[in-house]
Amino acid sequence: MNLVERRIASQELPWRDNDALGTPITVDGDATHGIVNGRKVILAGTNNYLGLTFHPDCVAAAQQAASRYGTGTTGSRMANGTYPEHRALERELAEFYGARSAIVFTTGYQANLGTIAGIADARSKIFLDAESHASIYDGAKLSGATTFRFKHNDAKDLAKKLGRIDDPGSAMVIAEGIYSMLGDYAPLAEICEVTSHHGVALIVDEAHSFGVLGKNGRGLAELQGVEDQVDIVVGTFSKSLGCVGGYAVSRRHDLDPLRAAARAYLFSASPVPSVIASARAALRVLEREPERRTRLLENAERVYRALQQFGYELGPAVSPVVGTIIRDTEKTLAAWRFLLDHGVYVNLVAPPASPGPYCLLRCSLSAAHRPEQVETIIEAYRALKETGPLAR
After folding, report:
1. What's the pLDDT score for residue 38?
2. What is the pTM of this model?
Protein backbone atom coordinates (compact mmCIF):
# COMPACT_ATOMS: atom_id res chain seq x y z
CA MET A 1 0.00 0.00 0.00
CA ASN A 2 1.56 3.29 -1.08
CA LEU A 3 1.36 6.56 0.83
CA VAL A 4 -1.77 7.83 -0.95
CA GLU A 5 -3.64 4.58 -0.39
CA ARG A 6 -2.54 4.35 3.22
CA ARG A 7 -3.44 7.95 4.00
CA ILE A 8 -6.89 7.76 2.42
CA ALA A 9 -7.63 4.42 4.07
CA SER A 10 -6.73 5.88 7.47
CA GLN A 11 -9.18 8.79 7.24
CA GLU A 12 -12.26 8.44 9.38
CA LEU A 13 -15.54 10.06 8.38
CA PRO A 14 -18.30 10.82 10.87
CA TRP A 15 -20.92 9.63 8.37
CA ARG A 16 -20.67 7.27 5.41
CA ASP A 17 -23.40 9.15 3.62
CA ASN A 18 -22.91 11.16 0.45
CA ASP A 19 -25.69 13.61 1.34
CA ALA A 20 -24.20 14.22 4.77
CA LEU A 21 -20.78 14.83 3.18
CA GLY A 22 -22.06 17.62 0.96
CA THR A 23 -25.70 17.79 -0.02
CA PRO A 24 -26.24 18.62 -3.72
CA ILE A 25 -28.46 21.72 -3.76
CA THR A 26 -30.10 23.28 -6.79
CA VAL A 27 -30.77 27.00 -6.43
CA ASP A 28 -32.79 28.83 -9.05
CA GLY A 29 -33.26 32.56 -8.69
CA ASP A 30 -34.00 32.66 -4.95
CA ALA A 31 -31.58 33.21 -2.06
CA THR A 32 -33.80 31.36 0.42
CA HIS A 33 -35.02 28.28 -1.44
CA GLY A 34 -33.29 25.28 -2.94
CA ILE A 35 -34.05 21.81 -4.25
CA VAL A 36 -32.59 18.89 -2.29
CA ASN A 37 -33.32 15.31 -3.34
CA GLY A 38 -36.12 16.54 -5.59
CA ARG A 39 -37.97 18.56 -2.96
CA LYS A 40 -38.11 22.28 -2.24
CA VAL A 41 -36.54 23.35 1.06
CA ILE A 42 -35.81 26.58 2.89
CA LEU A 43 -32.08 27.26 2.89
CA ALA A 44 -31.15 27.88 6.51
CA GLY A 45 -27.60 26.62 6.20
CA THR A 46 -25.86 29.23 4.05
CA ASN A 47 -23.84 32.33 4.93
CA ASN A 48 -25.94 34.52 2.64
CA TYR A 49 -26.50 36.94 5.51
CA LEU A 50 -27.74 39.94 3.56
CA GLY A 51 -29.43 37.86 0.84
CA LEU A 52 -27.41 39.39 -1.99
CA THR A 53 -26.63 36.36 -4.16
CA PHE A 54 -29.55 37.20 -6.46
CA HIS A 55 -29.65 40.95 -6.00
CA PRO A 56 -30.25 42.38 -9.49
CA ASP A 57 -27.43 44.93 -9.15
CA CYS A 58 -24.93 42.22 -8.25
CA VAL A 59 -26.05 39.84 -10.99
CA ALA A 60 -26.04 42.58 -13.64
CA ALA A 61 -22.57 43.77 -12.59
CA ALA A 62 -21.21 40.22 -12.78
CA GLN A 63 -22.75 39.63 -16.22
CA GLN A 64 -21.41 42.88 -17.62
CA ALA A 65 -17.91 42.22 -16.27
CA ALA A 66 -17.85 38.68 -17.70
CA SER A 67 -18.91 40.01 -21.11
CA ARG A 68 -16.27 42.73 -21.05
CA TYR A 69 -13.30 41.05 -19.37
CA GLY A 70 -13.93 37.33 -19.90
CA THR A 71 -14.21 34.51 -17.41
CA GLY A 72 -10.84 34.84 -15.71
CA THR A 73 -7.58 36.77 -15.45
CA THR A 74 -5.33 33.71 -16.02
CA GLY A 75 -2.65 35.15 -13.80
CA SER A 76 -1.72 36.37 -10.33
CA ARG A 77 -2.09 39.93 -9.11
CA MET A 78 1.69 40.41 -9.36
CA ALA A 79 1.74 39.24 -12.99
CA ASN A 80 -1.09 40.02 -15.43
CA GLY A 81 -3.96 39.58 -12.96
CA THR A 82 -4.47 43.14 -11.68
CA TYR A 83 -7.27 44.89 -13.54
CA PRO A 84 -8.52 48.42 -12.80
CA GLU A 85 -11.52 46.86 -11.02
CA HIS A 86 -9.30 45.05 -8.51
CA ARG A 87 -7.71 48.35 -7.54
CA ALA A 88 -11.11 50.05 -7.47
CA LEU A 89 -12.47 47.47 -5.03
CA GLU A 90 -9.43 47.92 -2.81
CA ARG A 91 -9.96 51.68 -2.76
CA GLU A 92 -13.66 51.23 -1.96
CA LEU A 93 -12.93 48.80 0.88
CA ALA A 94 -10.36 51.21 2.33
CA GLU A 95 -12.91 54.05 2.15
CA PHE A 96 -15.61 51.86 3.72
CA TYR A 97 -13.37 51.04 6.68
CA GLY A 98 -11.74 54.47 6.90
CA ALA A 99 -8.53 52.50 6.38
CA ARG A 100 -5.09 53.43 5.14
CA SER A 101 -4.89 50.53 2.71
CA ALA A 102 -6.58 47.32 1.56
CA ILE A 103 -5.62 44.14 -0.29
CA VAL A 104 -8.05 41.81 -2.06
CA PHE A 105 -7.36 38.06 -2.10
CA THR A 106 -8.97 35.35 -4.21
CA THR A 107 -10.68 33.70 -1.20
CA GLY A 108 -11.27 34.48 2.44
CA TYR A 109 -9.18 31.45 3.38
CA GLN A 110 -6.26 32.89 1.42
CA ALA A 111 -6.73 36.27 3.07
CA ASN A 112 -5.97 34.73 6.46
CA LEU A 113 -3.30 32.44 5.09
CA GLY A 114 -1.51 35.21 3.20
CA THR A 115 -1.82 37.91 5.85
CA ILE A 116 -0.69 35.80 8.80
CA ALA A 117 2.14 34.01 7.01
CA GLY A 118 3.17 37.22 5.26
CA ILE A 119 3.71 39.00 8.59
CA ALA A 120 4.92 36.32 11.01
CA ASP A 121 8.00 34.15 10.62
CA ALA A 122 9.96 31.59 12.63
CA ARG A 123 11.04 34.26 15.14
CA SER A 124 7.43 35.28 15.83
CA LYS A 125 4.92 34.22 18.46
CA ILE A 126 1.25 33.93 17.53
CA PHE A 127 -1.52 33.75 20.14
CA LEU A 128 -4.73 32.21 18.79
CA ASP A 129 -8.16 31.79 20.27
CA ALA A 130 -8.56 28.04 20.79
CA GLU A 131 -11.63 27.99 18.52
CA SER A 132 -10.03 29.85 15.63
CA HIS A 133 -10.98 29.01 12.05
CA ALA A 134 -8.83 26.47 10.20
CA SER A 135 -7.45 29.19 7.91
CA ILE A 136 -6.03 31.00 10.94
CA TYR A 137 -4.38 27.86 12.26
CA ASP A 138 -3.02 27.08 8.79
CA GLY A 139 -1.67 30.62 8.35
CA ALA A 140 0.11 30.36 11.69
CA LYS A 141 1.55 26.98 10.77
CA LEU A 142 2.71 28.19 7.35
CA SER A 143 4.46 31.17 8.94
CA GLY A 144 6.70 28.90 11.04
CA ALA A 145 5.94 30.97 14.15
CA THR A 146 5.64 29.47 17.61
CA THR A 147 1.90 29.23 18.25
CA PHE A 148 0.09 29.47 21.58
CA ARG A 149 -3.61 28.92 22.14
CA PHE A 150 -5.55 30.90 24.71
CA LYS A 151 -8.89 29.76 26.10
CA HIS A 152 -11.85 30.61 23.90
CA ASN A 153 -12.99 34.21 24.43
CA ASP A 154 -10.89 34.49 27.59
CA ALA A 155 -9.00 37.79 27.72
CA LYS A 156 -7.60 36.97 31.17
CA ASP A 157 -6.01 33.77 29.89
CA LEU A 158 -4.58 35.72 26.96
CA ALA A 159 -3.12 38.31 29.35
CA LYS A 160 -1.56 35.56 31.46
CA LYS A 161 0.10 33.98 28.44
CA LEU A 162 1.31 37.30 27.03
CA GLY A 163 2.81 38.10 30.43
CA ARG A 164 5.26 35.23 29.99
CA ILE A 165 6.95 36.59 26.85
CA ASP A 166 9.93 38.95 26.94
CA ASP A 167 9.68 40.37 23.41
CA PRO A 168 6.16 41.70 22.68
CA GLY A 169 7.41 43.17 19.42
CA SER A 170 7.63 39.64 18.04
CA ALA A 171 4.10 38.65 19.08
CA MET A 172 0.69 38.81 17.41
CA VAL A 173 -2.81 38.01 18.70
CA ILE A 174 -5.60 36.79 16.40
CA ALA A 175 -9.30 36.75 17.27
CA GLU A 176 -12.57 36.58 15.34
CA GLY A 177 -15.59 38.86 15.39
CA ILE A 178 -18.29 36.19 15.28
CA TYR A 179 -17.27 32.54 15.60
CA SER A 180 -18.81 30.56 12.79
CA MET A 181 -20.20 27.45 14.47
CA LEU A 182 -22.00 28.75 17.59
CA GLY A 183 -22.26 32.41 16.62
CA ASP A 184 -20.60 33.80 19.75
CA TYR A 185 -18.78 37.15 19.80
CA ALA A 186 -15.21 37.79 20.90
CA PRO A 187 -14.77 40.06 23.97
CA LEU A 188 -12.89 42.35 21.63
CA ALA A 189 -12.76 45.45 23.81
CA GLU A 190 -11.15 43.37 26.59
CA ILE A 191 -8.73 41.78 24.14
CA CYS A 192 -7.76 45.24 22.87
CA GLU A 193 -7.03 46.35 26.42
CA VAL A 194 -4.72 43.36 26.82
CA THR A 195 -2.90 43.79 23.50
CA SER A 196 -2.51 47.54 24.04
CA HIS A 197 -1.14 47.01 27.55
CA HIS A 198 1.44 44.50 26.29
CA GLY A 199 2.26 46.34 23.06
CA VAL A 200 1.26 43.35 20.93
CA ALA A 201 -0.19 43.43 17.40
CA LEU A 202 -3.82 42.36 16.87
CA ILE A 203 -5.51 40.87 13.81
CA VAL A 204 -9.30 40.43 13.84
CA ASP A 205 -11.06 38.12 11.39
CA GLU A 206 -14.46 39.75 10.76
CA ALA A 207 -15.59 37.14 8.21
CA HIS A 208 -18.94 36.50 9.89
CA SER A 209 -19.40 39.98 11.39
CA PHE A 210 -18.65 42.10 8.31
CA GLY A 211 -21.97 43.43 7.01
CA VAL A 212 -23.69 42.20 10.17
CA LEU A 213 -22.49 44.22 13.18
CA GLY A 214 -21.81 47.89 13.77
CA LYS A 215 -23.59 51.07 12.73
CA ASN A 216 -22.11 50.85 9.24
CA GLY A 217 -21.67 47.07 9.07
CA ARG A 218 -17.92 47.12 9.55
CA GLY A 219 -18.08 44.39 12.17
CA LEU A 220 -17.46 43.76 15.86
CA ALA A 221 -14.57 46.24 16.11
CA GLU A 222 -16.94 49.01 15.01
CA LEU A 223 -19.71 47.79 17.33
CA GLN A 224 -17.37 47.82 20.35
CA GLY A 225 -15.63 51.06 19.38
CA VAL A 226 -12.11 49.65 19.06
CA GLU A 227 -11.35 49.95 15.33
CA ASP A 228 -8.31 52.18 15.94
CA GLN A 229 -6.81 49.57 18.27
CA VAL A 230 -6.84 46.79 15.67
CA ASP A 231 -3.80 46.45 13.42
CA ILE A 232 -5.46 44.49 10.60
CA VAL A 233 -9.00 43.39 9.83
CA VAL A 234 -9.38 40.33 7.62
CA GLY A 235 -12.66 39.36 6.00
CA THR A 236 -14.43 37.61 3.18
CA PHE A 237 -16.93 38.34 0.41
CA SER A 238 -18.55 34.91 0.69
CA LYS A 239 -20.87 35.83 3.55
CA SER A 240 -22.50 39.26 3.54
CA LEU A 241 -21.46 40.17 -0.02
CA GLY A 242 -22.81 36.92 -1.43
CA CYS A 243 -19.93 36.02 -3.76
CA VAL A 244 -16.36 34.83 -3.09
CA GLY A 245 -13.05 36.43 -2.20
CA GLY A 246 -11.22 37.90 0.76
CA TYR A 247 -9.49 41.05 1.94
CA ALA A 248 -7.26 42.64 4.53
CA VAL A 249 -7.54 46.30 5.58
CA SER A 250 -5.63 48.43 8.04
CA ARG A 251 -6.18 51.85 9.54
CA ARG A 252 -2.71 51.80 11.07
CA HIS A 253 -0.42 50.35 8.42
CA ASP A 254 0.41 50.40 4.73
CA LEU A 255 -0.26 46.81 3.62
CA ASP A 256 1.33 47.07 0.17
CA PRO A 257 4.52 45.21 1.27
CA LEU A 258 2.29 42.17 1.87
CA ARG A 259 1.75 41.92 -1.89
CA ALA A 260 5.29 40.60 -2.20
CA ALA A 261 5.38 38.70 1.10
CA ALA A 262 2.01 36.88 1.09
CA ARG A 263 2.49 33.70 -0.92
CA ALA A 264 -1.27 33.08 -1.08
CA TYR A 265 -1.53 36.43 -2.91
CA LEU A 266 1.68 36.23 -4.91
CA PHE A 267 1.25 32.73 -6.32
CA SER A 268 -2.52 32.48 -6.81
CA ALA A 269 -4.63 33.55 -9.78
CA SER A 270 -6.46 36.79 -9.05
CA PRO A 271 -10.23 36.95 -8.50
CA VAL A 272 -12.23 36.73 -11.71
CA PRO A 273 -13.68 40.02 -13.01
CA SER A 274 -17.31 38.97 -12.58
CA VAL A 275 -16.71 38.29 -8.87
CA ILE A 276 -14.94 41.60 -8.35
CA ALA A 277 -17.80 43.45 -10.05
CA SER A 278 -20.36 41.60 -7.95
CA ALA A 279 -18.47 42.37 -4.73
CA ARG A 280 -18.30 46.06 -5.61
CA ALA A 281 -22.04 46.16 -6.31
CA ALA A 282 -22.80 44.27 -3.09
CA LEU A 283 -20.68 46.66 -1.03
CA ARG A 284 -22.74 49.56 -2.40
CA VAL A 285 -25.97 47.75 -1.46
CA LEU A 286 -24.60 47.07 2.04
CA GLU A 287 -23.89 50.78 2.49
CA ARG A 288 -27.20 52.14 1.19
CA GLU A 289 -29.56 49.52 2.69
CA PRO A 290 -28.80 49.25 6.43
CA GLU A 291 -32.30 47.85 6.91
CA ARG A 292 -30.95 44.51 5.67
CA ARG A 293 -28.79 44.23 8.81
CA THR A 294 -31.78 45.09 10.95
CA ARG A 295 -33.95 42.46 9.29
CA LEU A 296 -31.20 39.84 9.54
CA LEU A 297 -30.73 40.34 13.28
CA GLU A 298 -34.49 40.36 13.86
CA ASN A 299 -34.75 36.99 12.10
CA ALA A 300 -31.83 35.66 14.13
CA GLU A 301 -33.36 36.89 17.39
CA ARG A 302 -36.69 35.24 16.59
CA VAL A 303 -35.13 31.84 15.87
CA TYR A 304 -32.64 31.96 18.75
CA ARG A 305 -35.29 32.82 21.35
CA ALA A 306 -37.67 30.14 20.08
CA LEU A 307 -35.00 27.41 20.14
CA GLN A 308 -33.93 28.58 23.58
CA GLN A 309 -37.52 28.18 24.74
CA PHE A 310 -37.66 24.66 23.25
CA GLY A 311 -34.69 23.66 25.41
CA TYR A 312 -31.91 23.41 22.82
CA GLU A 313 -28.30 23.81 23.90
CA LEU A 314 -27.22 26.95 22.03
CA GLY A 315 -24.30 29.32 21.78
CA PRO A 316 -24.20 32.25 24.24
CA ALA A 317 -25.25 35.12 21.95
CA VAL A 318 -27.79 36.05 19.30
CA SER A 319 -26.15 36.23 15.88
CA PRO A 320 -26.99 35.10 12.35
CA VAL A 321 -25.52 31.70 13.30
CA VAL A 322 -27.74 29.62 15.58
CA GLY A 323 -25.83 26.46 16.46
CA THR A 324 -27.52 23.66 18.40
CA ILE A 325 -25.21 21.24 20.18
CA ILE A 326 -26.45 17.64 20.02
CA ARG A 327 -23.23 15.68 20.75
CA ASP A 328 -24.37 12.18 19.73
CA THR A 329 -23.27 11.51 16.13
CA GLU A 330 -26.16 9.31 15.04
CA LYS A 331 -28.76 11.54 16.69
CA THR A 332 -27.28 14.55 14.93
CA LEU A 333 -27.54 12.85 11.55
CA ALA A 334 -31.10 11.74 12.29
CA ALA A 335 -32.03 15.26 13.42
CA TRP A 336 -30.55 16.78 10.27
CA ARG A 337 -32.56 14.39 8.10
CA PHE A 338 -35.70 15.12 10.11
CA LEU A 339 -35.37 18.86 9.46
CA LEU A 340 -34.70 18.19 5.79
CA ASP A 341 -37.85 16.05 5.60
CA HIS A 342 -39.71 18.99 7.15
CA GLY A 343 -38.47 21.33 4.43
CA VAL A 344 -35.54 22.99 6.22
CA TYR A 345 -31.90 22.63 5.20
CA VAL A 346 -29.27 23.36 7.89
CA ASN A 347 -25.59 22.41 8.18
CA LEU A 348 -24.53 19.10 9.67
CA VAL A 349 -21.29 19.65 11.61
CA ALA A 350 -18.87 17.21 13.22
CA PRO A 351 -15.26 17.41 14.45
CA PRO A 352 -12.90 18.84 13.35
CA ALA A 353 -15.27 21.51 11.99
CA SER A 354 -17.14 21.80 15.30
CA PRO A 355 -15.43 23.80 18.07
CA GLY A 356 -15.45 20.87 20.50
CA PRO A 357 -15.59 17.06 20.58
CA TYR A 358 -19.26 17.06 19.69
CA CYS A 359 -21.65 17.34 16.74
CA LEU A 360 -24.07 20.15 16.07
CA LEU A 361 -26.64 21.52 13.66
CA ARG A 362 -25.80 24.96 12.32
CA CYS A 363 -28.74 27.12 11.31
CA SER A 364 -27.91 30.45 9.69
CA LEU A 365 -30.35 33.24 8.98
CA SER A 366 -30.58 35.72 6.13
CA ALA A 367 -32.12 39.14 5.66
CA ALA A 368 -33.90 37.54 2.70
CA HIS A 369 -35.83 35.08 4.89
CA ARG A 370 -39.46 36.14 4.98
CA PRO A 371 -41.49 35.97 8.22
CA GLU A 372 -43.36 32.85 7.11
CA GLN A 373 -40.05 31.12 6.30
CA VAL A 374 -38.70 31.98 9.73
CA GLU A 375 -41.82 30.45 11.27
CA THR A 376 -41.37 27.29 9.17
CA ILE A 377 -37.79 26.97 10.48
CA ILE A 378 -39.01 27.39 14.06
CA GLU A 379 -41.82 24.88 13.65
CA ALA A 380 -39.45 22.29 12.19
CA TYR A 381 -37.18 22.63 15.24
CA ARG A 382 -40.24 22.42 17.50
CA ALA A 383 -41.28 19.16 15.84
CA LEU A 384 -37.73 17.82 16.14
CA LYS A 385 -37.94 18.25 19.92
CA GLU A 386 -41.54 17.04 20.31
CA THR A 387 -41.85 14.13 17.87
CA GLY A 388 -38.49 13.71 16.17
CA PRO A 389 -35.17 12.05 17.08
CA LEU A 390 -34.56 14.56 19.88
CA ALA A 391 -37.92 13.99 21.60
CA ARG A 392 -37.53 13.02 25.24
Report:
1. 85
2. 0.94
pLDDT (tens digit, 9 = 90+) per residue, 22-60? 678 888 788 999 998 888 999 999 999 999 999 999 999
Strand 246-250 with 232-236, pairing: antiparallel
CA atoms in the 13 A half-sphere facing the CB of 164: 8
Q: Are strands 125-129 and 347-349 parallel, antiparallel or unpaired?
A: unpaired
Taking CA atoms, 218 is separated from 234, 256, 271, in Å, by 11, 21, 22
Tell me the sheet residues that pair with 345: 43
Beta carbons within 8 Å of 232's beta carbon, 6+ residues apart: 115, 202, 203, 204, 248, 249, 250, 253, 255
- Domains contained in the chain, CATH given: 10-43+290-386 (3.90.1150.10), 56-288 (3.40.640.10)
Query: pLDDT over 90 for what percent of the chain?
Result: 87
Rounded to the nearest integer, the mean pLDDT of the chain is 95
Residue 173 bridge partners (DSSP) = 127, 202
Active site residues: 47, 133, 176, 180, 205, 208, 239
